[in-house]
Amino acid sequence: MSDDINRSGGSLPDEQSAGDGKDSYERAYDEQLRRFTDLDSAERTQAVPVENISGMTYEQHPNRAGRDSGRPGTKKKRSGKGKAKKKVSSRQVHIDRSEPLQFGSGAAEEAARVKKGSVWKKIIIILLVLILLFVIFANIMIFRYISKFTQKDTGTRLFTTASLKSDNIQNILLIGSDFHAENEKGRSDSVILLSMDSKKDKITMTSFMRDSYVMLPEYDLDGDGAYFGEGDKCKLNAAYAYGGPELLMDTIEYNFDVHVEKYMLIEPLSFVDIIDSVGGIELDITDEEAQGMRAPMYQQNKLLGNPWSTDYLSCGGNGIRVNGNQALGYARLRYVGNADFQRTERQRIVLKKVLEKLNTLSIFGLDDFACSLASAITTNLSKWELYKLIVRGPFLMKYDIAQLRIPDDGEFGYGTGNDGSSVLTINFASCIETLNREIYE
After folding, report:
1. Residues pairing with 426 in the sheet
2. Pick the residue with more confidence: 137 or 49?
3. What is the pTM of this model?
4. Is 142 inside a domain boundary?
5. Residue 380 sits in which domain range?
6. Out of 72, 200, 232, 310, which residue is the most buried by the measure of CB atoms under 10 Å away?
């Protein structure tokens, strides 16, 4: 029987171990404890990573419970609450790894906002620099044009109390002198009042008939020592010959009660360069006008140094493109149609065509035009006034353009002047009413 007990790994309680001093019961207990511990260690080793066990104390070791459970005097304290706690603590939290991880989202948004603000700041700075460069370039060009004008101080004015005036309207008298010898003033070949209305966005071109019989204010024309006498009357175009732009402006103010204090004088041959600078203009010309243009163009070609028949038109037509020489011959044509009445109309047509052509020009074309125009003009406008007028130029090109003739139909008659020449006798009250209605109302 003792052999069976030994083969089964046990012994009687009162038997002592041969070599270790333990009886068979102690040896059987140790063997069972060893097997239990090995089994428990294998299970816990799979559940707990090795690297996490290396730093644990004895109390924290996962196998402590197994070991302590078999030791004498060890009490196991298990409760339902403890089990529930352990169960909750061992629950694994599911992490959705398909979503990208986000760290410091608030800081990222702040960084994006700062970056966006920095980009806009750079854009604004660039725009301001470009605007500044444009302003500098534009001012350089403007002062370049101003330097090409021939400026003169306004001479003595004797009459400046006209009642037709407005802060919204700027009047500039355009004076086209006729051909004359060197150092000779000559007469005004055309007199056009350019009225620019900033309130209505409108330009009114008013032609004053050169044969209008008018009074020269404060000017003793006949030399009798008295002013405003019958002998102090003359044709309007003679006022320029007697007293220059100042007397011409005085005469218009006194007789037609319209305020004018600024002028631009254009020499006739300079008009050729102005038209050529815009590439010519298109005009409707009759066959009779085409033939009549040859007389003034013969005189022009002689002064320009051209062969006598240069730029002659063989016939008329609609929309004929004419150059500066031809346009000047058309504007000076007097003996075809209704004499000087139709001639002033042609002058306004040419001026209107030039203004319309400006809207089609490139920036380089506008530069050529501005240089040609400025070089051809003598004016009493100050540099500051010229500066404001040039800056205003792009807006003026978009203004509506109206035409007017003074005297208008029904406001004149025919008479004879002191020198025996034919003149237009004027109904001045009616002319003043027309000017007020068409320009100032």
Report:
1. 412
2. 137
3. 0.70
4. no
5. 150-440
6. 232
